Amino acid sequence: MGNASTLAGFLLLFGAVAASPAGGQPSTVDGAYAKLSTGNAQIARALFEAQTVTPTSSPSGARGITTTSAKPLSLDQLAAMKQSGQSWSQVFQTMKAQGLVQDKSLAQVVSRYQQQQQPRKPDRSVVTAASPSSGASGGSSK
Description:
The protein is mainly alpha-helical. It contains five helices and two strands. It has a domain at 26-116.
């Protein structure tokens, strides 16, 4: 029995060490987004908003069961991935592999996000009221 409890203790210790992030950082992701720089926060937000959850059908042998793709990541989860040492490109590739994003590149994600954040310019095809000198009054009065 001594060997079994030693083995169980070793497995618990190994599991605790394996579950700890590199560098001894806490494993919590709460508040990770708030710690990002402005530029990194914008990339995290772009990735967050680019996530899509689409239903996927199982193979025909599974009686038509429909499931959804991976659960979307929170802003804090995205930030924690970055803070654990992954590049944004690696975070994007992970999300793409899980089916969370459909874009072809991180640049595409960020570009679309930035375009959405810009204020819309007024439509140039707006009709304005005619001025009195334009002859819009219906004709001359001579």
